[in-house]
Specification:
Belongs to the TrpC family. InterPro entries: Aldolase_TIM, Indole-3-glycerol_P_synth, Indole-3-glycerol_P_synth_dom, Indole-3-GlycerolPSynthase_CS, RibuloseP-bd_barrel. Keywords: Amino-acid biosynthesis, Aromatic amino acid biosynthesis, Decarboxylase, Lyase, Tryptophan biosynthesis. With 265 residues, the protein is of the alpha/beta class. It has one domain: Alpha-Beta Barrel (TIM Barrel). The chain contains twelve helices and ten strands. The protein has an eight-stranded parallel β-barrel, surrounded by eight helices. A two-stranded antiparallel sheet has the order 2-3. Strand 2 and strand 3 form a beta hairpin. Helix 4 packs parallel to helix 12. The longest helix is centred in the N-terminal third of the chain and has 19 residues. Bound molecules: ligand LARABZUK. The site of ligand LARABZUK has 18 residues, from strand 10 and helix 11.
Length: 265
């Protein structure tokens, strides 16, 4: 299965990171860095539009292959920011998404909105790495972590100033995450990471389980104002959109088209 292959690759990457990783050095570096920008706050307030937008910088994916051949990550991020995206998600996985840590660091220098490091985090060293390369938040995916692992990585991320988007796709993962009682920001992924099948109704099916005080972001397969209206209606606080924007010749216009109908309160 693809997700297992991705995780196997991550284990190899973590093993090579571990060869040079020094906790003391990372902590020293982080101590000298500016505070993180508030990712959770930015996406959940959504500039009072009623729906926050995380726009994703995504060159390729396992399900779709190459999505945007003419790929200029910094230019895309600047365009997202200028068009009103609240946060930017940056794929850093190289092997399956053609992403890079270097893209995230370059984007950090270029924009002033919070950045999510989008990768498959399975080890505490990747959390420190995310902070050092310039992320404001990390993604923790319930499908690839045991509850105790997720709890530990969540605590570490928070301890170094990162926000955490905890991703679930089904009832069992949601129950596990809610039982831990740590997540304040839950991403419901409309894509099944095992089969790649997408269904926006996944958000509607699971959102009712989430207690008040915890915000939900709907992720994947979102491409129209009708999708956003529907997800607003079911109670999502924000959306994460990658492929739709990446396929547009005029990315800024595509963002404006989706955000345009949202009313400021
Ligand atoms: O996008 C994939 O094919 C994929 C495959 C396996 C694991 C994760 C995958 N995507 C990560 C994401 O969650 C999406 O990049 C993100 O939600 C944006 O989705 P979309 O708007 O559909 O590009």
């Amino acid at each position: 299965m693809f997700l297992d292959r991705i995780v196997a690759t991550k284990r190899q990457e973590v093993a090579s990171l571990a060869e040079t990783f020094s906790l003391a050095e990372y902590e020293r570096t982080i101590a000298g860095m500016p505070s993180c920008l508030g990712f959770e706050r930015a996406v959940t307030t959504g500039r009072n539009r009623g729906m926050g937008l995380i726009a994703e910088v995504k060159k390729a994916s396992p399900s779709k292959g190459l999505i945007r051949p003419d790929f200029h990550p910094v230019e895309l991020a600047r365009t997202y920011e200028a068009a009103g995206a609240d946060c930017i998600s940056v794929l850093t996985d190289e092997q399956y998404f053609q992403g890079s840590n270097a893209y995230l660091s370059a984007i950090r220098e270029a924009v002033n909105v919070p950045l999510l490091r989008k990768d498959f985090t399975i080890d505490y060293r990747q959390v420190y790495e995310a902070r050092v390369i310039g992320a404001d938040a990390v993604l923790l995916i319930a499908a690839i972590l045991k509850p105790a692992e997720l709890a530990e990585l969540h605590d570490i991320a928070k301890s170094i100033g990162l926000d955490v988007l905890v991703e679930v796709h089904n009832r069992e993962e949601m129950d596990d995450v809610l039982t831990l009682g740590k997540a304040t920001l839950i991403g419901i992924n409309n894509r099944d990471l095992h089969t790649f099948a997408t269904d926006l109704k996944t958000t509607e099916r699971l959102i009712g389980l989430v207690p008040p005080g915890t915000s939900v972001i709907s992720e994947s397969a979102i491409s129209s104002t009708a999708d956003i209206a529907y997800l607003t209606e079911v109670g999502a606080k924000g959306v994460l959109i990658g492929e739709h924007f990446m396929r547009q010749p005029e990315v800024g216009q595509a963002v404006a088209d989706l955000l345009g109908p949202l009313v400021k309160s």
